[in-house]
Amino acid sequence: MTPEALIDIFRDALAVIVMAVSVIVVPGLVVGLIVAVFQAATSINEQTLSFLPRLLITLLALMYTGHWLVQTLMDFFVEMVNMIPSVVG
């Protein structure tokens, strides 16, 4: 295995990880920012007001993108398994 092949595999793995995590985290961050601006504007300091919308949006993001996430991870795994003979030999 050459260092270039290892770097290519590592780069592909990081790309899959960043895509999968960003699909889940970014909607929660956006909703958290909106709720924080609302709380600052109205001086409401309720913890559940910031937690519950983020939780719901994260669950909805998982629900709507779950199939794509699993398919992306499966495609990457199959690509890695198919790559074994060329990397080892």
UniProtKB/TrEMBL annotation:
InterPro entries in the record: Bac_export_3, FliQ
Transmembrane segments: 13-39, 51-70
Claim: Nucleus is one of the keywords in the record: no
GO annotation, cellular component aspect: bacterial-type flagellum basal body; plasma membrane
Entry keywords, A to Z: Bacterial flagellum, Cell membrane, Cell projection, Cilium, Flagellum, Membrane, Transmembrane, Transmembrane helix
The keyword Kinase belongs to this UniProt entry's keyword annotation: no
Domain of life from the UniProt record: Bacteria
UniProt subcellular location: Cell membrane; Bacterial flagellum basal body
GO biological process, one term: protein secretion
Pfam families: Bac_export_3
Functional summary from the UniProt entry: Role in flagellar biosynthesis.
Protein name: Flagellar biosynthetic protein FliQ
Organism in which the protein naturally occurs: Shewanella cyperi
Gene name of the record: fliQ
